[in-house]
Amino acid sequence: MNYDASSIRFLSALEHVRLRPAMYIGGTGPAGLLHLVFEVVQNSLDEALAGHCTRIRVEIDASGDISVLDDGRGIPLESLESLMTTLHSGGKFDTAGAYEVTGGLHGVGLFCVNALSSELEVEVRRGRHVRQRFQRGVPEAQEDLGVTEWHGTIVRWRPDPEIFGAVELDVDAIAQRLEEWSILLPAVRLELSRPDGEEQAWQEEGGIGGFVTRLAGPKRIHREPVLLSGEHEGVHISAALMWTRTYREVLRSYVNTVRTRHGGTHEAGLQAALTHSVDRYARRAGLLSEDLDEAIAGHDVREGMVAVLVLSMRNPEYESQTKTMLSSRHAQAAVQGVVEKELDAWFTANPDEAAAIVGKALEASRARAAARRASERARYQAVDTSLSKDIYRKQFGIRSKNWHESCVWLTDESLLSAHAEMCKMPEDARVLDICCGSGVVGASFRDRVGHIEGLDLTPEMIAMAETRLDHVTKGDVYEMPFESDSFDLVCNREVLHLLPRPERPVAQVFRVLRPGGQFIFGQLVPYGPIDAPWFFRIVKKKQPLFFNNFLAEDLVKLLEDAGFVDIETRELTVWEDIDTWIETHETASLQRHEIRRLYHEAPAEVRRVHPFEITPSGRILDQWRWVVFSGMKPG
Amino acid sequence: MDDRTREAAKGRLPDLRGTRTHECLGRFFSNDARAAVLYAYFARIAEIEGFHEVAGTLRELAEGTELFAEGHLDFLKKTGHPVTGHVLRGTADNLAALRDAARVEAIDDLQDAARTAHAEGFPDIASWFESVAAAKAAHADRCEGVAKELE
Fold it and tell me: Which of A265, A547, A593 sits opposite B48 (nearest CB)?
């Protein structure tokens, strides 16, 4: 296709844009200002997509002037002025136009940028080198600067202070967008010069495959990314997929270079295709047990998957003007068809990788079933023995492999020292750390006491605790294998919530303490009755063995009822990284999603009492409330 | 012909209280309130499982069903709160009715249920009931708090 005067249709009006800028760029705040930048960059991107551009550069200088440079073909000289001064005069509006597809936001194009700039200058090199200046959209004469070998376009403008006032440009948002674009345009180097002179550049030479490989990192389970591409009824699809040994799912999708942050029909098509292809392969390879009536669910397949999905298509439809969610129906069928066909072929051609990927999904599906069975079994056994030792042993045995990475609170220094600081016992005290885990809580008393004993059920944990404590005994907290009155201090952290009938282990603590001895334990608790049910659901979904959702006052009462006196508490808060906390085998994939939902959709009354944060990248940080309790056995 | 039917035949509306119709309204209100939550809950799961279109349909059904429940309530409210019978003539009454209902549930129903769950060997469900009881008691207090501000 040619990109010349004939493909430009003229419509109308400068005044209207200046009078009602919000109609064209959404508003005159920071988002509107960004919109101008992206509108100009989009023109360069369209050149790049058409294969005519290798470098796009955005410069923002300290005075607030913005420049966008590219080495594309250059705007056709004969239509330069009309392009800058007429509404809806882009090549993109011609249905048989110069570009097959375009990401241009609303097609308002350079004209709007020009209309909303106090000064704008455009330089084009396309055979001749031409420059034209504009004042609030009104053109000055075009200057011909002679013949040039080079080609490209530079647009430099100053957003009109009459329109935008003192609104500041969000440079980080530009950087983020350039980085996103670099994934899609492996042949293009994207550069940013910030107001303070700092330079940044992005080029993902490996394209989407390189990007998913980098993002998957060392935990990937196959070496090369799965690269798929195809076309279906005018929808061009390419995708890169990589599976990792983590539980997190990362899916980025784009339509005509615009990131669809909230997904839509194309993502639904991808998900359906993945589920079908993986399930089909698993059945064909005889990996599913018919006896157990096993099936692989969509979220099992997506667990640990890093994926980029890129569409280019004509006239995409979106849920809203901001283009963050695709609603075109035919995109779903197109993506599903292409991905399923290509993925089936890839699985057949790469049987080892296929086995690893399908095995991972199968593992996820089995872990989900096991988690369900574990909680059912624990409940059943709770009736007579109060505790299923096997289940605890198994669960914490597996977790011991990456125990200290599994969350922040385990090794948080302030939390550990809070326990030790409450110690009132003499220097030669005998300490017992019950359900000692890796022994860090007991070890935090190291400088204050004489002997530290550990008690745990799990051989793996005992092995870890032995490196920290003086001696570790294997045994259970319902019947502690110790003489009565044999310790000065018993300590424990974050265990009582996992024990059905907690009054029984607390009575055991009372028994093994000498008269005048002290019990110190820390527990994560809700802020109060309002967030208690919400918090219950989160913790129960994370940990199927969660049995007691104590409020702080419940724990005080538990101590009192066991006979402890002089009860004291200390409170502190620790920011916990929820994504890391829930990334454990005992939390099934569906539950991890549900937990994230609970944060995203937390009721207002919960938000008011329970601080947590969802970062722009989507990570969830929760300010947990820890209470450390101390009670004395009467002397 | 009984009295009610006779009154109805004369074009006068009979008293709803204690009728089979009243009983049906109460039952349908509970059913649809429950169904609305089920739709919304399963919409969320459908979305997580990647069935966005199904999720959209379920969300719409949830909304539609909520409207049914509210429609039942349009009639029911004339005979008072569906559980306590407390009059519902406006916000002050409504708040008092909600407060009383939340207290009854928090203090009696849920605490009883928690004891039963403990006895039957479901410590986690017992703890859940206790958590909800505590939150409901706090809700009752909030209703009372805003009611005081109205005065």
Answer: A593
Question: For chain A (length 635 residues), average pLDDT per consecutive 10?
Answer: 39 70 79 88 87 94 93 88 70 39 54 91 93 91 90 94 88 90 90 94 90 88 91 93 86 88 90 90 78 72 91 86 81 94 92 85 75 53 43 56 61 79 91 89 87 90 87 90 94 90 93 95 94 94 90 95 94 86 78 90 91 80 92 94
Q: Which of A141, A174, A202 is the last residue of a domain?
A: A202
Transcribe A291-318 into DSSP letters: TTT----HHHHHTTEEEEEEEE-SS--B
The two structure tokens encoding residue A433: 């750390």
- Domain span at residue A595 reads 393-632
User: How much is the ipTM here?
Assistant: 0.82
Task: Report the top-level CATH class of B1-79.
Answer: mainly alpha
CATH topology of domain B87-151: Ferritin (1.20.1260)
Contacts of A278 (CB under 8 A, 6+ apart): A296, A301, A357, A358, A361
Please report, to the nearest 10 degrees, the dihedral formed by the alpha carbons of residues A219, A221, A224, A226 taken in order: -110
Hey, is the C-beta of A377 within 8 angstroms of any chain B C-beta?
A: no
Total residues belonging to chain B: 151
pLDDT in tens, A424-480: 999 899 999 998 888 888 888 888 888 999 999 888 888 888 888 999 999 888 889
Q: What's the per-residue H, E or C state across A449-507?
A: CCEEEEEECCHHHHHHHCCCCCEEEECECCECCCCCCCEEEEEEECCHHHCCCCHHHHH
* Chain B residue whose CA is closest to A385: B121
Angle between helices B52-76 and A265-284 (to 10 degrees): 120
Contacts of B128 in chain A (CB under 8 A): 533, 536, 540, 549
Q: Does A539 touch chain B (CB under 8 A)?
A: no
Residue of B nearest to A329 (CA): B53
Q: Is residue A374 part of a domain?
A: no
Would the pTM of this model clear 0.90, i.e. be above it? Answer: no
Residues A268 and A359 in one domain: yes
Ranges of CATH 1.20.1260.10 domains, chain B: 1-79, 87-151
Lowest-pLDDT choice from A142-156, B3-17, B101-115: B3-17
Closest residue in chain B to residue A547, using alpha carbons only: B124
Task: Please indicate, yes or no, if residue A378 is contained in any of the structural domains.
Answer: no
- State the CATH number of the domain containing residue A560: 3.40.50.150
Q: Is A386 inside a domain boundary?
A: no
Contacts of A106 (CB under 8 A, 6+ apart): A24, A321
Residue A14 in any domain: the answer is yes
Q: Report residue A86 as tokens.
A: 């007429």
Domain's final residue, options A202, A220, A250: A202
